[in-house]
Amino acid sequence: MLSQTLATVVLALPFITVPVFAQDMTIAVTNQYGAAVQLSFGVNAGFPGFRGNPQATTLNDAATNTYAVPSGWAGRINVGKIDHPDNSKIEGSFYGAGKGDIDVSYVDGYSVPITCSAGGKVLSGCNIELMDRGCNGPDHVSGWGSDGKPAVCTNGMRGSPSGPASSFFAPCAGAAYTFPKDDGANVGMLQETQISCCIGTSCAASPKQHKRDILSPKANAPSLMARSHKLHRQAHGQ
Q: Taking phi first (over 0 means left), then psi (-120 to 50 degrees means alpha), and beta for anything else, what does residue 236 get?
């Protein structure tokens, strides 16, 4: 029997709904990029997946899709102009209110700018269009759009756990993950369970952009932050 706290959330198409429980975390993804983007989904091995098992889909410009995850979830949403494993990613884990985290990762590579917010505050990500900087050594273009322009810049520092960020990724260092231990980009101990992620340069900017001095995590919750960082590195084979 379904709980009385059951609600529904739209997935991908207006007529597709899945159950959402009060204890779930939801991630709303809004496209302000000015063109359609591709979404695909991944889950860390041994963890529960997204509600409704969403499949790869197109998110049109100005559209929003909302996804729900249960307690115990750890995974990611891959976002880009094309479907590519090195796209920008929304990552997170969730163990109930106060025990969740969310981040934006460019560790594998960069495709589109993303920021994620909760409670009206930007938590992670970077709204800078990095592709304008030119993708070259140690990084390289690994995917091209239908317009013949670079669509994915693979991160040449993803095999260097402690970085530093390459010159291409440097403007977003500490705001989004730009190397595996760029942990200033991770926000744990989230009290909020409704996350909003935005794709595009018009999205709210992170106060961490261009900054290297990152605020320290809460002193009373180091184990939760350590777990969040461990899950991030596991997702990237570190």
A: alpha
Who contacts 132 (Cβ-Cβ below 8 Å, separation ≥6)?
none
Asked if residues 111 and 151 have their Cβ atoms less than 8 Å apart, the reply is yes
Q: Which two tokens stand for residue 71?
A: 């307690």
Adjacent-strand bridge partners of 27: 67, 195
d(CA 52, CA 122): 27
For the chain, how long is the longest CA-to-CA vector? 56
DSSP state of 229: H
Distance CA 51, CA 20 (A): 8
In angstroms, rounded to a whole number, what is the distance separating the alpha carbons of residues 219 and 104? 23
pLDDT in tens, 144-200: 999 999 999 999 999 999 999 999 999 999 999 999 999 999 877 888 999 999 999
Does the pTM exceed 0.85? no
Residue partners of 225: CB distance under 8 A and separation at least 6: 101, 183, 186, 188, 189, 217, 218
